[in-house]
Amino acid sequence: MSTETTDEATEVFVAHRNLLFTVAYEMLGSAADAEDVLQETWLRWVGVDLSQVREQRAYLVRITTRQALNRLRSLQRRKEAYVGQWLPEPLLTAPDVAEDVELAESVSMAMMLVLESLSPTERAVFVLREAFDYGYEEIAAAVDKTPAAVRQIAHRARKHVDARRPRRAVPRSAASAAVESFLRAVETGDPQTLLDVLAPDVVLIGDGGGLKQAALRPIGGAEKVARFLLGGIGKNKLPLTLAAAVVNGSPALVAHLDGELDGIMAMRFDGDRVTGLYYVRNPEKLTHVLAETALTLR
Known about the structure:
Mean pLDDT: 88
Strand content: 15-25%
Shape: elongated
Largest sheet: 6 strands, mixed
Strand order of the largest sheet: 2-1-6-5-4-3
Radius of gyration: 20 Å
């Protein structure tokens, strides 16, 4: 391949990189695996005769989807042997992502968990159709199915997700206020203040991956969650600091223990109450956050 052709391929790939990463991440729930998929996509893309490609964006999405499907099937085997609860890898996202309600919902921790309940093909079809509004023929080419089959898969996946998707979207201002109230409650250590911000049916899920201590099963109910949170903080002999951030398109908290990143706590909201807490402590899932933080501080 000539230098000129390689330069053109690079320019096209870079122009669509954010889109391709989002497609891969929503399918995989892992930023690290999404980056690997992009590398594989690039290696295949530079070998393509661009003069034969009519829709470059669609072609790149097709390559990415197929690579993500292959990786998703291997990820399922890894998850079967995972220690404790599995949560998606958190992403620090720009505030403007949270303002795009549809995009923010599609990458939220709660929605990513719902997508985990789909088969690999259902997940690919749902992501391309619902999050990116791809046509059935385009999706069919990406997942190697007929348009009629894709239409049926999309209907089945949408019905499955609608039955499990998070409650109505909450305005960012209300979510931010709930995070601030939660933060103040944790900092004061007052159980009643914390109970006031937790919904009665709140659920906490922790992910330590066997590398960090975390609840092995979901904890449900405001009183149990409050006791768990305040009891865990009380046991810490090292200083714990919490700071607000935007994670997966929604207000969240970043926790540092003695100055070192300890975890990311994403949240789900209903009005001014917290209905879901997702605390990722597995250090292998925090490398992308550390890298993003390092770039921000430069």
